[in-house]
Amino acid sequence: MLFGFFLFCVGLLFNTGTCSAAQPELRITTIMQEPYTMPQGSQLEGFCMDLLSEVAKKVGFKYKVHLVKDGSYGRQDDNGHWNGMVGEVVRGEADLAIAPLTLTAAREKAVGMTKPFMQTGISILMRKDISEGTGFFDFLAPFSAKTWAGIIVAYLATAACLSIVSRVSPCEWRRPRSEDNTFSLAYSLWYAVGALTLQGAGPHPRALSGRVVCCSWWLAAVVILACYFSNLSSSKSPESTQLTVKGFQDLANQDVIQYGCLSASSTLAFFKNSDNPVYRRIYEHMERSESFVSSMDEGIQRAKEGNFAFIGESVSLDLAVARHCDLVRTHEVVGMRGYSIAATLGSPILKNLSVAILQLSEAGELAYLQSKWWASSCMLDKAKSTAVQPHSLKGMFVVLALGLTLGALLAVLELSSRSRSNAAEQKTTFCRVLTEELSLRFRSKNANGAEEPADDKDTDKA
Predict the structure, then answer these.
(1) Can you tell me the distance from the alpha carbon of 175 to that of 458, in angstroms, rounded to the nearest whole number?
(2) DSSP letter for each residue of 289-302
(3) What is the pTM of this model?
(4) Dihedrals φ, ψ of 262, to 5°?
C-alpha cells in the first residue's frame, strides 16, 4: 500500500512537470509605441498585445510582459554588443521580443526572427500644404465639377428667363412695334454676369416680374460668391511653401525644407548602406544637418509644424495620417521589409511561432487587427474644406427656381391684365388680344418694322 501511494505521488509530480513543460511562462519584452503597445490602466493593450494573445493560444504558452529597460529597439555598437529589446533577448533577460521590430540581416544573426507579421517600407511624412503642388486650375477647386455645371445652368436659365419676361411684360416692353427690347438675350446674359461678379449692369428692369427675377439671381450670386471665397481662402494656407514633393527624388533635389529620420534606426541604416546616389545624398544631408529625431512623436510634431519631412516606416506613418488630418504620406515606398517577433537563437518555439503567424494571416486575423488599431480618428479638417457639392447649394438653387417661376407668372399676369383692358376697349375677345400680343412680342425685329404702328395709341392708353 505504501508502494502504491509512492507511485501515485511520483505520477502526480510527473504530470505536474509535464503540464508545466507544455505551458511555460515566457518573458516577453516590448516597447511603448502607439498602437502596438499602449498603457491601459495597469495593463497593456495594442496590436502587439492582441497578436501575442492570439499566438499564445495557438502555440500554447503563458507569458509575462515587461517594457524594455532602455527604451530602444536594438542596435549593435562598435564592440558587437546589442542594446534594447534585441539585447535583452541576446543576454537571456527575455525569451521573446514583440514589437514593430524590423527584420534585418544583423538582427537575424544575433537572434531568431519569425515570419513577418506585418509588411512595411520607408516613406515620407509631411504637412499637406508642402506636399501638394499648385495647378493651373486650382482656382476651381472650391466647387466640384457638378456644382460648376449647376451654376452655369442656373446662369443660362436666369438670363433666358429675364429675356422672356422682359418681352412678355408690357411694363417692360411698352411699344413692341416702335422700340427695341432692352433685355435681349445677349444683354440678359451680360446683365447676369455683371450681377455674378458684383460689378452691376444697367439699365435695370422696370417691371415687377423682371425685378423678381433679378432679385432671385442677386441672392443666388451672393450665396455662390460667399461659398466660393470661403472655400478658396481655407484651401490655401498662407504659410504654404507650395513645394511639390512626391518622393525621395524630389526630396533630394530641393533644399527648401529639412528632412530627417529616427536616429539609430533601421531606416537610417538603409540610407547609410545604400549604393543608390539619391539615397546617399539623403543620408549625407541628414548627417550634415543633424536632422535626426529621437522619437516618432518628435518626427510627427516637426512635420506638423511645417518645413520638415519625416522619413519613417510606412505603417507608422499611416497611423500618423489617421490621427492627424493635416499630414499626408507620399505614395512612394522603398526598402520593403517586415516586422517580426524575436526569440533566442535556436529556440524550439521559433518554428511554432512562425506557423501561428502564417495561420493568423491566412485566416485574415492580422488584417482585422490592423484595421482595428489603424482606424482613423481624424475628424474632417475645418481648416481645409473639401469642394462644395451640389447638395450643399440645393437650397439656393430651389430659391432661384422659385424666383424665376414667380417672375414668369407675374409677366404673364401683367400681359393678361393689359390684354383684358385692350379687349374691353376694342370690344373683342380676351384670347384674341392675348394671342396678338404674344405674336407681336415674339416676332423678329424686321417683321415688326414692316408693320405700321397702328396699335401704339392703344398701347399708350394702356
Answers:
(1) 10
(2) HT--BSSHHHHHHH
(3) 0.51
(4) -75, 130
C-alpha cell at 380: 474632417
Q: Give residues with Cβ within 8 angstroms of 127, minimum separation 6.
A: 303, 304, 305, 306, 326, 327, 328
Which one, of 83, 113, 103, 25, lies nearest residue 345 by Cα?
113
Cα dihedral 247, 249, 252, 253 in deg (nearest 10): -120
Q: Answer whether the bond into residue 170 is a cis peptide, omega within 30°.
A: no
DSSP state of 205: P
Handedness of CA 430, 433, 435, 437 (dihedral sign): negative
> In terms of C-beta density within 10 A (0-12 exposed, 13-18 middle, 19 or more buried), how is residue 142 classed?
buried
Give the pLDDT confidence score for residue 446 in this predicted structure: 40
Confidence at 20, pLDDT banded by 50, 70, 90 = very low
Cell of 272: 547609410
pLDDT tens, position by position, 37-78: 999 888 999 999 999 999 999 999 999 999 999 888 888 888
User: Distance between the two ends of the chain, CA-based, in angstroms?
Assistant: 135
- 29 with 88: CB under 8 angstroms? yes
CB-based contacts of 50, cutoff 8 Å, min separation 6: 369, 372, 373
DSSP characters for 232-277?
Answer: HHHHS-TT-------SHHHHHT--SSEEEEBTTSHHHHHHHH---H
Give Cβ neighbours of residue 311 (< 8 Å, ≥ 6 apart): 122, 123, 124, 125, 259, 260, 261, 267, 271, 282
> Which 3 state secondary structure label does DSSP give 202?
coil
% of the chain at pLDDT higher than 90: 29
Residue tagged 510634431 (cell numbers): 301
Q: What is the dihedral of CA 171, 176, 177, 178, to 10 degrees?
A: 70
Whether 462 has a pLDDT exceeding 80, the answer reads no
How far apart, in whole angstroms, are the C-alpha atoms of residue 446 and residue 199?
Answer: 33
